[in-house]
Amino acid sequence: MSKHTLSVMVENEPGVLSRVAGLFSGRGFNINSLNVAPTLEKDVSLMTIVAEGDDAIIEQIVKQLRKLIPTIKVKDLTELNSVDREMVLIKVNAEDSKRAEILRIVDIFRCKVVDVSADELTIEITGDQSKIGAIVNLLTRFGIKEIARTGNVAMQRSMQIEL
Amino acid sequence: MKLTGAQILLKCLEEEGVDVMFGFPGGAVIDIYDEIPNSKVEHILVRHEQGAIHAADGYARASGRAGVCLLTSGPGATNAVTGIATAYADSIPVVIFTGQVPRALIGNDAFQEVDIVGITRPCTKHNYLVQDIKDLQTIIKQAFYLARSGRPGPVLVDLPKDIQQQKVEFDYPKDVSMRSYKPTRKPHIGQIRKVVKLLKKARRPLFYTGGGVISSAAHEELTWLGQKLSIPVTSTLMGLGAFPGDDDLFLGMLGMHGTYAANMAVNDCDLLLAVGARFDDRVTGRIDTFAPNATIVHIDVDPTSIQKNVSVHVPIVSDCKPALAALKKETEGTLEEFDWAADHKEWVDEVQGWNREHPLTYKDDGEGIKPQYVVEKIYEITKGDAIIATEVGQNQMWAAQFYKYAKPNTLLTSGGLGTMGYGFPAAMGAQKAFPDKLVIDIAGDGSIQMCIQEMMTVVCNKLPVKIVILNNGYLGMVRQWQELFYDKNYCATCMDAQPDFVKLAEAYGAAGFRVTEKKDVEKTLREAFKVDKPVIVDIRVEKEENVYPMVPAGASLTEMLLV
Ligand SMILES: Cc1ncc(C[n+]2csc(CCOP(=O)(O)OP(=O)(O)O)c2C)c(N)n1
Ligand SMILES: [Mg+2]
Predict the structure, then answer these.
(1) Interface check A57 vs B, CB under 8 A
(2) Residue B161 and residue A36: Cα distance in Å, rounded?
(3) What's the pTM value of the predicted model, to 2 decimals?
(4) How much distance in Å is there from the Cα of B555 to the middle of ligand 2?
(5) What is the ipTM of this complex?
(6) Mean pLDDT, residues A88-115 taken together
(7) What residue ranges of chain B are covered by domains with CATH 3.40.50.970?
(8) Superfamily of domain B189-357
């Protein structure tokens, strides 16, 4: 079992999200995250789907996605050199005694504080999965009250070199 | 000229060459019905929407053209869902038009509103809700194109009532182009050459063919390849008729109720050429023991079918016809230098030996009428020149085993979904496509009651379908499983409380016959087939006859229970 990030270009038409979601639920495929947004072309949307499965299952997922009539293109970014990012908002307990330490973590990870109250901080983090995993881990011990994640978005690199 | 949505629909159907549609009216399609008398498209009024969709499906299977049905919103549409799923499972081109409440009411739980596009999303190839009259003609064009091309399938178009009433210029597009849908039609020639190489090396090649050969009309190419290269052929239920059923190289069906020879051949072959078939569990049995000694070539137009259930060595995404035509072209030149028949003789002898050892058979000793005997007689009387529809269950398997299909599109049966009630309305649709052909529904006493209401439709439309009920008083196939695997606990499978089918036929204005003795089977069938109106022949067969061979669910193909 491994995670694959799929970039799926679809016609931006009613029902297309439900076709994709129905494909995953109807066939029992595992979906980790799904992100949909418009592109520069007004009738095209881009979905980024993180799916989990062995090679045969991922192959089926890719083929089944291609088979949907409104699908224009499917790329398995895991097999290509790509960048991927997720944005996460985390509301964490931050009494006075803990605040300094939390801010230090925020600093180290180059995140942003986007909201403050007497005993909470809301932090915005953007990064790849390992960075997000790491910071979520570090903040857990302070008590995470709420977390909202966008799901991964990803893109194939133009030049096949890691920056 | 500006026309209403309703008028445009009918005009588009004419442009698509649709001569008949099967339907049932209601408030949400009354505007369309209002225009039907002015249209060239004939409308057959069914008695239940399930009948309409199966009839459109049967019409499509028999004729190779797309079937069409027209239904109202809400219950009209939901009544057709079983038939849509049936067509989807077997990849049959059908276009379904449903009425919908006016756009302003959609989402309001309006009277007879149902989200039929949502409901049928997983059982259509694609579906549409028309939201703008300007899109109507493009959508209809796409619907027919999608239904017929690539891997065919049902397409549903939901038409809000106000769209049917709005007007727009009639301008039916001449062709379609969809950037998101470009099915691969032709094979990669490199892959075809690989197959030729494999064929030259193979000692024990076998064709395993399915419904794709029929839907792409590749039967001539298949027959040429099988006969000229001397390769035995086994077929799925859906593929019967693509290769001549009486040819010595034909092994019959494989799988759960396949022949001994076919299942042994799959087990022993060294090259399996899968064409338009999809390695369904009823065909493969235990998957990890399927074709254990073979290099597998898989030709299919649908990439998702390839590598889904088994891993194959040479995948070829292509329509079956161009792929087999390419294979023919690449091997034609070898016929002079290479004696294929001699090369495969040992193998063909072995396969035919299995067939002699354990042919399809049944014990015909007692007093009673054996259902297999009835099917054999139907074959003899019709000389194979009939269109056979089947219901589902034992009747279906006997119809597949004991009738030899010589031509494609002559067996109409619900293979993928196994829908009881399919056969009779499908036969009705086929009869509409071929008014002069003998169309027979080989039925079970249980299944026939699921769409029996269409008796009225066939009588009043003069569609002289012949229904032959293999009446065993049981939901026989389920009873067989109970007998073999559930200690004969015949719970809810005894159906001996049944109508008098002869009187029932007569009540509808059809003819009814009953046969209780073997000696009358042939005579009565001959008489019944000559009647120029719909007929029910109620044949009281042995109640507890089983279908053999049988591979228990989940067992390997070689673990067959024999007669
Ligand atoms: C709509 C539907 N419901 C239930 C079944 C399950 N089923 C499969 S075969 C069968 C028995 C069919 O009985 P009958 O039509 O009398 O045929 P026989 O097997 O006796 O020839 C049943 C209930 C089905 N295939 N389709
Ligand atoms: Mg029965």
Answers:
(1) no
(2) 32
(3) 0.96
(4) 25
(5) 0.93
(6) 95
(7) 2-169, 371-540
(8) TPP-binding domain (3.40.50.1220)
